[in-house]
Write a structure and sequence with these properties.
Order of helices and strands: HHHEEHEEHEHEHEH
Strand order of the largest sheet: 1-3-4-2-5-6-7
Strand content: 15-25%
CATH superfamily of the largest domain: P-loop containing nucleotide triphosphate hydrolases
Mean pLDDT: 83
CATH architecture of the largest domain: 3-Layer(aba) Sandwich
Bound molecules: guanosine-5'-triphosphate, magnesium ion
Number of strands: 7
Largest sheet: 7 strands, mixed
Helix content: 25-40%
CATH topology of the largest domain: Rossmann fold
Structural class: alpha/beta
Oligomer: single chain
Shape: globular
Length: 275
């Protein structure tokens, strides 16, 4: 079985379409038993986009939101983690993600019928790409609208299992990042900080950035002197640093079980550097 499938497998790989490739594996049960390699996050597909809290989906599956300053690399991180180049719209122009974009995991026959409707009751988890904050050129009223929307969303959304706070490793914990952290901390839910663009730092700078971030997070304690469930890691979409660590953390925070990964799986090309 393994040998018979090899030419088809190779041709699908050459197509560089992980969905097609995965669908082939999914449709070949004996094969799957031999090669189970993709992350569950690779199953992500666009679900919906919303602009007002009242339009948030009525799904009950746990969701994890990617928050951070505009241009920090949220959309890029989603693309790398889902291994889909164009899933979340990443761009050199700050302020590109202006709506709340939802991507679903589960509820679809991965890649087999790309356009088949997602079965809402079968969705296992959702990834949420939030609009970036701190983008200077947004008008005052639009800024207020987004700030209120983000604050209300992270504080009130019950389905939100955890927050991924994406920060540029060269300038983490800006005033608005701290505001986001302090909005969410009282919920008692975990925050996983991802220090992106680590390719811009040398080894020493990376070590320092991580240590300082840990110190910053450890400085938060509740009224009983207990720390918060905050974690941090380095990440680079460009050099593929920290991708497995982020994947495993997100899978865990969403309560999913990942499949074993194959080191030969087809990966999307690295992103363009922004500067
Ligand atoms: N060097 C480097 N550049 C990166 C990395 N991640 C993202 N970028 C670049 O940073 C720019 C912004 O990335 P996005 O993912 O669009 O940022 P965003 O946080 O979604 O921005 P908004 O949608 O405006 O909130 C793009 O040019 C990316 O290619 C990285 O790890 N290293
Ligand atoms: Mg974006």
């Amino acid at each position: 079985m393994q040998r018979a499938c090899e030419p088809i497998k190779a041709s699908l790989r050459n197509n560089r379409n992980p969905l097609l490739y995965n669908s082939f594996l999914a449709s070949s049960p004996p094969f799957v038993a031999i090669f189970q390699f993709m992350s569950k996050l690779w199953q992500a597909r666009f679900f919906t986009t919303v602009n007002q809290l009242r339009d948030l989906p009525t799904t009950t599956a746990p969701e994890i939101a990617f928050a951070g300053r505009s241009n920090a690399g949220k959309s890029t991180a989603i693309n790398i983690l889902t291994n889909q180049k164009g899933l979340a719209f990443a761009s050199k122009t700050p302020g590109r993600t202006q709506h709340i974009n939802y991507f679903s995991i589960g509820g679809a026959h991965v890649g087999q019928h790309r356009k088949d409707p997602t079965r809402i009751d079968e969705i296992e988890a959702l990834l949420v790409d939030l609009p970036g904050y701190g983008y200077a050129e947004v008008s005052g009223s639009a800024k207020l609208h987004w700030q209120k929307l983000l604050g209300d969303y992270v504080q009130r959304r019950e389905q939100l299992a955890a927050l991924v706070l994406i920060m540029d490793s060269r300038r983490p914990f800006t005033e608005l990042d701290i505001q986001m952290l302090e909005w969410f901390a009282p919920t008692g839910k975990p925050i996983h900080c991802i220090l992106t663009k680590a390719d811009k730092l040398n080894r020493n700078e990376s070590t320092n950035a991580l240590r300082q971030a840990r110190q910053m997070l450890d400085s938060y304690v509740d009224e009983d002197g207990e720390g918060f469930p905050f974690t941090v890691q380095l990440f680079s979409a460009l050099k593929r640093i920290g991708i497995d660590e982020a994947n495993d953390k997100i899978i865990d925070l969403l309560g999913l079980t990942d499949v074993e990964r194959d080191p030969n799986a087809v990966l999307i090309d690295p992103v363009d550097s922004d500067d």
